[in-house]
Amino acid sequence: MPTVFKFGGASIKDADAIRHLTPLIEAHADRPLVVVVSAMGKTTNKLETLLASARDDGRKDAYRDCFDALQAEHREAIESLFGDASDSPRERVDVLFEELDTQHRKHRDAPYAKHYDQTVCYGELISTTIVAAWLNHCGIATDWHDARELVRTDACHQSANLDWTATADAIRGRLAGSERVILTQGFIGGTEQSEATTLGREGSDFSAAIFAHCLDAHEVVIWKDVTGLFNADPRRFDNAVQLERLSYAEATELAWHGAKVIHPKTLGPLQEKSIPLMVRSFETPEAAPSVIDAERRFDAEVPCCILREKQVWLEVLPRDFAFMDEPRQHDILGRLVEAGLHANLIDSSAMRFALCLDDKPERLETLIDSLENDYELRREDRLTLLTVRHPRPGMMDALSEGREALAERRNATTAQRLFHSDDCPETWHIPEAR
Ligand code: ASP
Ligand code: MG
C-alpha cells in the first residue's frame, strides 16, 4: 500500500535542506511512495509580494527586483546542488520563471484571485522540479507529476473545491502501481479548462490527504521542523509539550480554533479511510512522532492552549430597542458569510449580538458597511483570543492572571477568553493541573 510524505517549505528551504531529504526517502523502500512538496522556504509569501507589485503600475521596479531575487535564490540552490552536472534542472527552472513572468503579464488585469492562482502556483512547480531532479541525481528513480492535472477542482480561485470523482480517476489512473517515487506539488490543482487553482494557504497538507485518500494509502507522514504536534505553540508557551496521540476529531478542533498544526481540511479525507497521520521531524527522524488516528482515548489527556491574535470584537446592537432574536441573528450571520468572514466566538443577549473576528481589513469593511445601515455598531481592536481545550479546573483563571476579559465562553470541552493584546504577556505559561 502506498505511503504519502509531505514536505513543507521549511524542509526544502535551501540546498542543504534538500540534501537532507534524500536519506529520508531512501530509508523508505516501499512503493508507491508519493512525495508532496510545498514551495521552498517563504517563496509563497514572496510570490504574493510579487503579485502585488505586478498589479500596481507604479511599482514596476519593485516587481523586477522581487522577481530577480526569487530567481537568484532558486538558481543558487540549483548551483549548490548540481554544480555543472549535465542533469541540472537549471534550464527547466529558467523556463518556469519565464512562464511565471508571462502569466503575470497575461493576468494583471484579471480578478485578483485568478491572477493569484495562475502565478503563485509556480512556487511549487519550481521547487518540485528541483527536488525531482535532485532525487534522480542521487539515484532514486523519481517521476515528476503536475498536480494541476491530478487534483481536479472548480474555478473558485484561492480556495478551490475538489471534484473528488475526477481527482480519484486522475490519481488512480496515473499513479497506482508505480514502482518509482511519485513527486508532486502540494497546494495546487487545476480546472477542467486547465487553469491553475490553489487550495488555500498551507494547503499542502490537504493535498497529501487527497493523494492518500485516492490511493488508499497506508499512512501519511508530514515532515516538519518540530518533532510533532504540541499542546501549545512552543514559541509562545514556555512549557509546551508534544502530543503523542490524538484523534482526527480533536486535531480538527485544534486546527479550527486556530492552532497552526495542520490545514483543517486534511483530516476529513484521512478519517474516511482510517489512514493514520504522523507528524515527524526531518531534523530528528528517529524521535517519536505525533500520531493522529481514530482513537479518541487520549484526546483529553493534555489540555491544549491556542492563541488567536489580531482579533476584533464587533458588537451589533438594535436601533429600535427590539430583540436581537433569531431572525436578526440570521440576518447578521448571513452578512458575515457574504463578507467571507468567520466568527471565532459569538455572544448573544436580548439586545446585543457580538462577534469575535480575525482582523481582515477589506472583509471587515464590507461587513461593517453592510451592518451600519441597520444596526448600531461598537468595535474594539487589538485583541487576543485564548482557547483552552480540555481545561483543568482553575486553569483558565490562572492563565488570565486577573486581566479583564471582554468576552468569555465555555462548554464541556472548551473554554475561551478574549483579552486586550496589550494586557497579554509575550510568553505564556500553562499552569500545572490541580
Ligand atoms: N506553499 C503554500 C503556502 O506557503 C502551501 C503550503 O506550504 O502548504 O501556503
Ligand atoms: Mg508551508
SSE topology sketch:
Elements (H helix, E strand, L loop, with lengths): L2 E5 L7 H12 L6 E5 L5 H12 L5 H23 L7 H18 L4 H9 L1 H16 L4 E3 L19 H12 L5 E5 L2 E3 L5 E3 L5 H11 L4 E6 L20 E3 H9 L10 H6 L4 E5 L8 E4 L10 E14 L8 H13 L4 E7 L2 E7 L2 H12 L3 E14 L5 H6 L6 E4 L3 E7 L14
Parallel strand pairs: 1-2, 1-7, 2-4, 3-4, 7-9, 8-10
Antiparallel strand pairs: 5-6, 9-10, 11-13, 11-14, 12-13, 14-16, 15-16
InterPro entries: AceGlu_kinase-like_sf, Asp/Glu/Uridylate_kinase, Asp_kinase, AsparK_Bifunc_asparK/hSer_DH
Family: Belongs to the aspartokinase family.
GO molecular function, one term: aspartate kinase activity
Could you characterize what this model shows?
- With 434 residues, this protein is an alpha/beta fold.
- It has two domains: 3-224, Acetylglutamate kinase-like (Carbamate kinase, 3-Layer(aba) Sandwich); 304-423, 2-Layer Sandwich (VC0802-like), CATH 3.30.2130.
- It is built from 13 helices and 16 strands.
- The chain has an eight-stranded mixed beta sheet, sandwiched between helices. Strands 12-13-11-14-16-15 form a six-stranded antiparallel beta sheet.
- A hairpin with a 2-residue loop joins strand 12 (343-349) and strand 13.
- The longest helix is centred in the first third of the chain and has 23 residues, at 60-82.
- It is globular.
- The model has no long low-confidence stretch (mean pLDDT 96).
- It binds aspartic acid and magnesium ion (MG).
- Its EC number is 2.7.2.4.
- Belongs to the aspartokinase family.
- It catalyses: L-aspartate + ATP = 4-phospho-L-aspartate + ADP.
- It comes from Billgrantia antri.
